[in-house]
Specification:
The complex is a heterodimer of chains A (114) and B (112). Chain A is mostly beta strands. Chain A has no helices and 11 strands. In chain A, strands 2, 4, 5, 6, 9, 10 and 11 form a 7-stranded mixed sheet that branches. Chain A is globular, with a radius of gyration of 13 Å. Chain B has no helices and 11 strands. The chains are: A mainly beta (114), B mainly beta (112). At the A-B interface, strand 5, strand 9 and strand 10 of A face strand 4, strand 5 and strand 10 of B.
Chain lengths: 114, 112
């Protein structure tokens, strides 16, 4: 257990559905991240939140909408997704302000878009 | 463009052998980290090496860093079947300590 939990672990949705992914960290960190991991591609950073404020949006399509109500919780709202959005979505957290940035990852949500 | 690139992309060895994975990157870094990922799971941090360090050890892991060549290697000694996983290097670019860029990974299979 890394102290970062994600729900659901698996999600199958149609292109017209709306769903949300949830991430919670129990480590007292101040930064949280969403990554997308597709087969044979590098891990893609999607969003970064620092003290609840979004500090990075890596040109992510608007059909992905993040929400960070507090430093412990992070959501990714999904709507009108495409089949190519099927991937493993990973959440991570870290404590920033130091000289390095070890990230703690959740187990991921395996998303399949039909 | 991709910052870290691991080599080889796949590696298969017998239990007890050593496994060496390499990572090359393009821009100056603050530090370099290695992570491990079991199939379909999240990544787990293994070791971090700072830009002013050349070698670091942690248990059966040995990491080297050559900033002049912009490369790092991860050596796992006396491998075990449980080491089977994907291994990623991640670079933390100078001036951007929140943004860590991952490579595509090396898939290691240790055959019992």
């Amino acid at each position: 257990e890394t102290g970062v939990t994600q729900t659901p672990r698996h999600l199958v949705m149609g292109m017209t559905n709306k769903k949300s992914l949830k991430c919670e960290q129990h480590l007292g960190h101040n930064a949280m991240y969403w990554y997308k991991q597709s087969a044979k591609k590098p891990l893609e950073l999607m969003f970064v939140y620092n003290f609840k404020e979004q500090t990075e949006n890596n040109s992510v399509p608007s059909r992905f909408s993040p929400e960070c109500p507090n430093s412990s919780h992070l959501f990714l709202h999904l709507h009108t997704l495409q089949p190519e959005d099927s991937a493993l979505y990973l959440c991570a957290s870290s404590q920033t302000g130091g000289t390095y940035n070890e990230q703690f990852f959740g187990p991921g949500t395996r998303l399949t878009v039909l | 463009s991709q910052q870290g690139e691991e080599d080889p992309q796949a590696l298969s060895i017998q239990e007890g052998e050593n496994a060496t994975m390499n990572c090359s990157y393009k821009t100056s870094i603050n530090n370099l980290q290695w992570y491990r990922q079991n199939s379909g799971r999240g990544l787990v941090h293994l070791i971090l090496i700072r830009s002013n360090e050349r070698e670091k050890h942690s248990g059966r892991l040995r990491v080297t860093l050559d900033t002049s060549k912009k490369s790092s290697s991860l050596l796992i000694t006396a491998s075990r079947a449980a080491d089977t996983a994907s291994y990623f290097c991640a670079t933390d670019a100078s001036g951007g300590y929140q943004k860590v860029t991952f490579g595509i990974g090396t898939k290691l299979q240790v055959i019992p």
